[in-house]
Amino acid sequence: MQSGSTQIVMLSSEAEIETAEWTDGSDVTKKRKQDAVAGVHDHQNGVEAHFVAPATPAQLELNSDNQSSEQKDSGTEIAKCLGPCCNEETILYQTREEALLAQTVIIYGSGRNKRERSFQASCSKADGAFSIEGFSNWKKALEKFADHERCQAHKEACIKFNAIMKQKSVDEQLKLVAQKEQIERRQMFLTLLSSLRYLLRQGLAVRGHGDDSEGNLSQLLKARAEDSIALQKWIKTGSYQSPEVLNELTNTIGAEVLREVLNGIKSSRWFSIIGDETRDISNSEQLSISIRWVDKDYSIHEDFIGMFKVPKTDAEMLSLAIEDVLVRCVLPISQCRGQAYDGASNMAGPKSGVAARILQRQPTAIPVHCLCHCINLCLQDVSRKCKCIRDALDLVYELVGLIKYSPKREHLFTQYQLQDSPNIHRLKPLCPTRWTCRTGSINAVIENYAVLQQTLEEIAETCRDEYGRKAAGFQALMGKFSTFFGLKLAHVVFGASEQLSTTLQSKDTTAQDARLAVNLCKAFYDRQRDASAFQIFYQAVLLEANGKTEPPTLPRYSNPPKRINDGDANFRFATAEHYHRREYFEIMESLSGELDARFDQKGFHLAALVEATILDNCSGKSYPIPKEVQDLYSKDLNIDRLQTQLSMLPDLVKSYVLEGKQITKVTTIQRFT
User: What SS3 class is residue 285?
Assistant: First the structure.
């Protein structure tokens, strides 16, 4: 004991009491030690008691602030129990001289919700001294305490006390159950989202036909539930699987994807618009919009924004729809630097088309007619003018439909094909929209020409319906030399244009690449406009048609009435070769003229001019920036600084390119930046 102060420590076991340092061996000290031992047992039974013993400063816990002046003067010691049964901050524990409590009560809650719960032992052999009467036999305290520890009443009281302290209230239990369900349902919901995202990523249908339980989403969840019991239970509830919820989730995922795409577009600052209108299966007009942009690594991106329903397809409505989409996507039209549409009047009209309307608001939004669509329109116009090619395409379309749309007739064709030449190509249908993809269909008919003739003859003899009559008519057409000549000529024309279309469709194609590809295709057609080229072609067709068709003949001539005779009908060709010569040169000249007209675009020439300026400066030719470029991009670029950078460009190229090499493509420069 320190002089002038009282040290209070809580001893929680009999062993700690025995090993405690007591100040002397007086009767008072022995009595205090016995009280401490009794207090331990009372505390284990849930009875509030206090006991004191000397302690080190680290174990000291005083409640001197809660003692009155009388208590401090009298030396009454107040201790605080650290056990779970005594959790109040200010509790005055009864002294050892008072009787033990008759029962032990735990109090929880406050106010109207205050509750008391007893955990008094219910054993019939309980010792009354430790539960009702109170213990006073201090001479045999240690012996009685040891016996009490081994009795059933003491053990039962301890078990009940621990159970009560561990047991939670009904409100807490309900809250825990609700939290557990929320966690499980949240995990199951995330599983549903991941499954839905997978189906959307792969472009698969989410629901089935009528019965959603047979849809792709339901079957995917069932497959994943084989490894999760919680998911099996959750699927049976059908939560978040209604069409309305799935549509909302799909829209949310789509909005998140679009948001990520728009963030990339906004980071690049400038962009171009690609738009086209079409009619869907529900007979509604849809406007598709895509954005073309370049990232910081000079990689080109073309991202689809969406399909938007429009009530009309006039220029005013389409231009308003495009501007509305840009506003919703937070893409300022002032940052638009290009437009690409088809050649329809509502899109490319020079005065009131969509391109002209947007160009009025933003002069730097250069409109360019889609180059692939240009070559498509060239072939379409030429095919309409040339009778032999028009008839050849119609024959290919009808032949493929007659053979492919009947399993019986296709099986017959396959049998003849295996007997004649099993390694040749099978029939392909004509693409209804992309004219440059028709070369494969035409080539398949030419390679299977003899097989088709045998198949048509078999169908005409065995079938007595309309298909038999069609087969007989096609057989008669294929027996003419003019039909075979038209197929071969169409193959030459469409073959060169398909190569051009493949080059133009690449998203990495520059204006220089497009112009070079167009010039090569035009040079090929110009080279065919020669008498020697026609003779080579005509003799090759004659040799290949030998045994498949009749010899070349002139068509039948008719004498039109004099009132409509313009003089041209009186001209007669001397031979069939002269007749086919005229058809041959007409189509080659038409193609050359169509290419010049379709690809002669102001916007396309301006883009090519910018590329040519950069390439010329790369080779060391110090050319000034063209005035058209300066006027167009004066607000976007510092022209003086750009001119200085162009003059330093050859030195940059030399540090990356070997001596004697030259830069021929703009895309090569991106490696140096």
Answer: strand
